[in-house]
Write a structure and sequence with these properties.
Layout: H1 2-33, H2 36-45, H3 52-65, E1 75-83, H4 93-104, E2 110-113, E3 123-138, E4 141-157, E5 162-171, H5 185-191, H6 199-204, H7 216-228, H8 231-238, E6 243-245, H9 254-257, E7 262-264, H10 265-275, H11 279-286
Parallel strand pairs: 1-2, 1-3
Antiparallel strand pairs: 3-4, 4-5, 6-7
Helix pairs in contact: 2-3, 4-7, 7-10
Amino acid sequence: MRRNVVLAVFVLILVYYLVWYKELKNWEEVKQKSTISEYESFIAKDPHSKFINEAHALNESLKKERLPAFRNAKRAKIIINERYGPAKLFSLNHAISMINMSLLKYAGIDVIVGKDDPSEYDFIVKIDINGKPLREDYRSLRLYTGATLEGTITFEAKDGSQISDSFSSKKEPPRMISVSKEFGNREIACRERPDGAPFWEIFTGWGSGWQPSNTYICKMIELEYKAFGSTPIILALKDARNSVYVAQHGTDDPCVNEGMTYVSLKEYLEHSLSSNPEMKLKKTLKQ
């Protein structure tokens, strides 16, 4: 009889421990993601959890970080308008969509792409890009060895509230090139076409050494901070898997896709942190 009682008590303790451990593990996963949607899902599924008060507090804290117009936002629609002059095949649509998805997920924002998508959304991310290939004469060769990119990013909420920023980058065509060292036959063939201009180099900030301050990626990071606070930036910096595959879809043209493979977002996040004048962000991230 006594043995059965001891066994029953042991089983009850074991069951209690397993239930507690499962709840703790679930809560730790929610805290690690640290988004409004995760906290609200946890609160709805387990309103009697021993972590419920902490979940409510953290959820409200995240909402206070956000601008009022984006406080309850969970889904964004991305609309991209792009023009590159005579470069008719080149496009940054896929690269920008993938970069935005990767950055906004840290704020708990789902992304839909394209003005024709009928899905519901809470705010629009509108990107307008103007690019121009720049050509230079090299004796018998006329090559597109330079390019410009400029544009704006706008977050527009349902109530009409907006925040926006502009980006721009440029690579002047070099006056001289070394055909044997810098350009082989394939590179020359590509640079003879407007679509082979170094748009991708300047989009990433690598046009003349790495100068990312005014690039699209850094400006997108700064806008995300303004709209959603420091928590998404902290989460992105802590994530070691934040490289984004950005090769353009819909074409296998090597001139159009040249250099477009992966982007490491951490480099741009760290640069934005070091150059951002808002000291509150710096102090928060150093804690």
